[in-house]
Design a protein that fits this description.
Layout (H helix, E strand, L loop, with lengths): L1 E2 L2 H8 L6 H14 L3 E4 H15 L1 H10 L4 E3 L3 H14 L6 H9 L1
Parallel strand pairs: 1-2, 2-3
Helix pairs in contact: 1-2, 1-3, 3-4, 5-6
């Protein structure tokens, strides 16, 4: 199982992104080997907002439809609170709340 985050999702979606080819190659390899690709609801929301802002509504809508292929972790109140505590501890190290949620999920 591997967790995919907003950075990787954006690189997959934007052909102009410097990491697009690498991200596409790695993503295709993971899918071919049957590895479960995990994400969580906060990454979903963050990715949709970023894709819509930078690449438009159609790209964001396509991602929402394609995201059904991922194993989705819907964030509970307990996970959120654990992530907020971690975020408070790491806040000065430029860790976003979404990143903190990812650390807790992992």
């Amino acid at each position: 199982m591997i967790l995919i985050d907003t950075f990787a999702i954006y690189a997959l979606a934007d052909r102009a992104d410097p990491q697009h080819r690498r991200a596409r190659r790695q993503f295709d390899q993971l899918r071919a080997t049957g590895v479960t690709i995990l994400t969580h609801s906060y990454v979903l929301i963050e990715s949709v907002a970023l894709l819509k802002h930078r690449l438009g509504f159609a790209t964001a809508r396509t991602f929402v439809d394609d995201a059904r292929a991922f194993e989705m972790e819907w964030i509970s109140a307990a996970t959120h609170e654990a992530a907020v505590e971690l975020w408070r501890q790491k806040g000065r190290r430029k860790v976003s709340l979404v990143d903190a949620v990812s650390f807790v999920v992992m």
